[in-house]
Design brief:
Helices cover about 35% and strands about 15% of the residues. By secondary structure, it is α/β, with parallel strands linked by helices.
């Protein structure tokens, strides 16, 4: 009796994802690309042929955590006796500092930017086979190979996901994040997100609605709407440019309120949460919409960052203590039972 031929080895890819929920969605898209290319996903770093560290660089402590995770991953492949394991770095720190990191961290086999999240499967194949001339965004415009890691990062990212973008969800089965926009137009002095993720760019409303319908059919009950500035959703699509303090106003074009009212009409048992809203863009229209839509949770996230007038000016937050206090009063009065989550920078 002849034995069946051994199955060809399928490349196993592991992922360490750091930072915020927006970065987690990028990780899910990268893993979806890996599966689409016929590879396997493993939760055990020591079993991976390729390990991806999806980094954060929002503040100094996040950068430090990302660097430590990269160095630890390199150390572990030595301890696990996997010298041929490939190490890829992605995420915000890779996008912003890939040129510098390529010199400082020769242990890394490749750096991936934000425009390449949906191409990770192809990049893994390229790195594993040792292909010459690592490409840029399209994997075609090549830069010469060196003894340093490949650099696939391109400047000024413009990518946004679509409803049919392959994803491998990393959240519990009942919950999911939906990224409705990418990038940010705010000039906050403490934040480098606009320089890393580019200008604000909203997804088409129908793309968002199609994704939510698909998630509801899969049994998802909690849908978290996220972006760098959720309240600015749609304003970049207006005919007349919206200012940095523009309140949500559906008479001028697509808005978060219009999107929420369309989500309200989707059949099924589910609710949506609003995360990463900016205090400058809240309006009576948005408050009324949330109050009238029972599928929108009585829970909102508004990162206020500070309340002192002088600090708000130095942080270039485009808002004021008076505005914030009035807004909280309006929210409490207009949406009974509302829970407000926020963050502050102190020290």
């Amino acid at each position: 009796m002849t034995r069946p031929p051994p199955r060809p080895h399928r490349t196993k890819v592991g992922m360490i994802s750091l930072g915020c929920a927006k970065n987690l969605v990028d990780a899910e898209i990268m893993l979806g690309s890996v599966l689409q290319c016929g590879m396997e996903i493993t939760s055990r770093a020591q079993d991976a042929d390729v390990l991806v560290v999806n980094t954060c660089a929002f503040i100094d402590s996040a950068k430090e955590e990302s660097i430590n995770s990269i160095l630890e991953a390199h150390q572990q492949r030595g301890l696990s006796k996997r010298p041929n394991q490939k190490l890829i770095v992605s995420g915000c720190m890779s996008q912003r500092f890939s040129s510098e990191l390529r010199e400082l961290l020769p242990e890394v086999d490749a750096f991936v930017g934000l425009d390449q999240v949906s191409e990770l499967g192809e990049i893994v194949q390229r790195v594993v086979t040792g292909g010459d001339d690592p490409g840029r965004a399209s994997l075609a415009d090549a830069a010469p190979a060196t003894n340093l890691g490949y650099d696939f990062v391109t400047a000024h990212p413009s990518y946004i996901p679509d409803y049919d973008t392959p994803r491998f969800r990393l959240t519990p089965t009942h919950s999911a994040y939906v990224k409705i926009a990418e990038g940010c137009n705010h000039p906050c002095s403490f934040c480098v997100i606009p320089r890393m993720r580019g200008k604000h760019r909203s997804r088409n409303p129908e793309s968002v609605l199609a994704e939510i319908r698909g998630l509801v059919k899969e049994g998802v009950r909690e849908i978290n709407l996220i972006s760098q500035d959720t309240t600015y959703y749609g304003m970049d699509l207006w005919t007349q440019k919206a200012g940095p303090r523009q309140p949500v106003d559906s008479s001028r074009g697509p808005t978060l309120t219009a999107l929420l009212r369309k989500i309200q009409k989707i059949e099924g048992e589910f609710w949506v949460r609003l995360l990463y809203t900016h205090p400058a863009h809240w309006s009576d229209e948005l408050i009324e919409t949330i109050a009238e839509c029972d599928k929108v949770a009585r829970y909102i996230d508004i990162p206020l960052q500070h309340i002192d007038e002088s600090m708000l000016r130095r942080m270039q937050r485009e808002t004021s203590r008076v505005h914030i206090e009035k807004l909280i009063g309006k929210l409490r009065a207009g949406i009974p039972g509302l829970a407000i989550r926020t963050t502050f920078i102190v020290g």
